[in-house]
Amino acid sequence: DIVMTQSPLSLPVTPGEPASISCRSSQSLLHTNGNNYLDWYLQRPGQSPQLLIYLGSTRASGVPDRFSGSGSGTDFTLKISRVEAEDVGVYYCMQPLQTPITFGQGTRLEIK
Amino acid sequence: QVQLVQSGAEVKKPGASVKVSCKASGFTISDYYIHWVRQAPGQGLEWMGVVTPTSGSPSLAQKFQVRVTMTRDTSTSTVYMEFSSLRSEDTAVYYCARREGSSWYSHSAMDVWGQGTAVSVSS
């Protein structure tokens, strides 16, 4: 199984400041077709997860451009350029490259 | 409106079975992979398995292969997850989610999620 490791696990951020979450996989997520199969999801308190980023760096429809994803192979990063109050929740990276699909442990973002 | 609507909360005793439904609207379920993901209280997300688009056959994570069945009824646009021999550690919220199904390696992701179904297992 591919192991996904996120850091940090807790991320207190002042509104307006940037935030960054790292995700590392135990195997490369770069497919021979050139795509990195790495997604980012946000689970707001009491809600279902929602898609933010897929294929490592493609923002999902309706996701603000303050969210960006980068990385390739085994190292990926989610960045929020200016954190807003509505960004509070748990962020998960996930690899859909192979089954079993696996998630990172989650990073809890809170507002200072 | 594109959505997945799941059945309501369940309370079960150890050893019982539960069947959770996930009804699609606004799209055709045979065009999508329908995944099941669970979340134990205060814990992270765990992938359970997927119903494939063309055949409707399931692919399950190894730990769920004995006790979980996933089926699909295209006439009602509903996907089902049945969990047998429930244990207290199966207490969780169970989510269904769709992913576009032209190929496992398509340019897509789990873009629509159900609201979750809480299953509580207690004696």
Concise overview:
The complex is a heterodimer of chains A (about 110) and B (about 120). Chain A is an all-beta fold and about 110 residues long.
Number of strands of chain A: 11
Low-confidence stretches of chain B: none
Judged by helices, strands and strand pairing, the structural class of chain A is: mainly beta
Order of helices and strands of chain A: EEEEEEEEEEE
Largest interface: A-B, 28 and 24 residues
Q: What is the mean predicted local confidence, pLDDT of chain A?
A: 98
Helix-strand pattern of chain B = EEEEEEEEEEE
**Multimeric state of these chains?**
heterodimer
Structural class of chain B: mainly beta
* Percent helix range of chain A: under 10%
| Total number of beta strands of chain B | 11
| Share of residues in strands of chain A | over 45%
Unreliably modeled segments of chain A: none
Largest sheet of chain B, described in full?
7 strands, mixed
Strand content of chain B: over 45%
Compute the average pLDDT of chain B: 97
Q: Give the % helix of chain B.
A: under 10%
> What's the overall geometry of chain A?
globular
The largest pleated sheet of chain A is described as: 7 strands, mixed
Counted by DSSP, the helix tally of chain B is 0
Rg of chain B, please? 14 Å
What keyword list fits this structure?
heterodimer, A: 112 residues, mainly beta, 7-stranded mixed beta sheet, 4-stranded antiparallel beta sheet, 11 strands, 0% helix, globular, B: 123 residues, 49% strand
